[in-house]
């Protein structure tokens, strides 16, 4: 473990976990971190499940892409770390799939189930303000998804992953882009403003507001589209492979039942995300009436979209190198990701 890591980095949950929650603007939030302001209540647990199931469809029934099995199949005891585990769905599934591996999930709030596989544990830690509280070269696989909105210094975060990942270990990062994607004439384009001929301003206003609030919190909202470059800058990884995919939102995909299911799950995710943004918007000083208007207009576009739209998902995996760097890439804009 790094010498400057505080000894109290990790929290363990007992019977009374009330100290880890705070009520803000009618929702329950974590009490450890003031940057990450999405709720940690039952609606957010449900949203986490929709997101997890959607990614399983995107990954063709699996919980990962990349050389995960190679990293975990050898050795007496493999170790997996799930950063920002949320409700713990990914960590639990990995523990079931790899019963010989020790799986640890870290999050800001104890919203994970108490009944889990014997090789799965959950711990609390604010990864934005603390070092990752584990020894050097300790893990065979580190997984982090939808984390960047709670991390102010993402390069430092990656350096911590480098430290705790063993040579030959695998990193898997998944981050959705925060710029809307629309479909026009069969093409998908990520744009900051809606086309002049569509009534889609509510959706774009919400995402621009979200990005503005995150910037006020010190978050770099361009991290998702820079993952490959940020990993390369560490000079610690080889076989860096990027998969970019347009995930449909809603019920518009036709002709492919799997892609339609992905769109439905992403729509359900967003239906719960929109009201979940209210505490962040209010905390950043936006008047309540404006917050309610922004969310209402975005919901109107979600329920009755004037054009088909998507979200751009950035997925990247790499292997911690021993001596040399070899960077490769795969880029695409298909509705689903492939190995």
Automatic annotation (TrEMBL):
<dbReference type="GO" id="GO:0008168">
    <property type="term" value="F:methyltransferase activity"/>
</dbReference>
<dbReference type="InterPro" id="IPR029063">
    <property type="entry name" value="SAM-dependent_MTases_sf"/>
</dbReference>
<dbReference type="Pfam" id="PF13489">
    <property type="entry name" value="Methyltransf_23"/>
</dbReference>
<protein>
    <recommendedName>
        <fullName>Methyltransferase domain-containing protein</fullName>
    </recommendedName>
</protein>
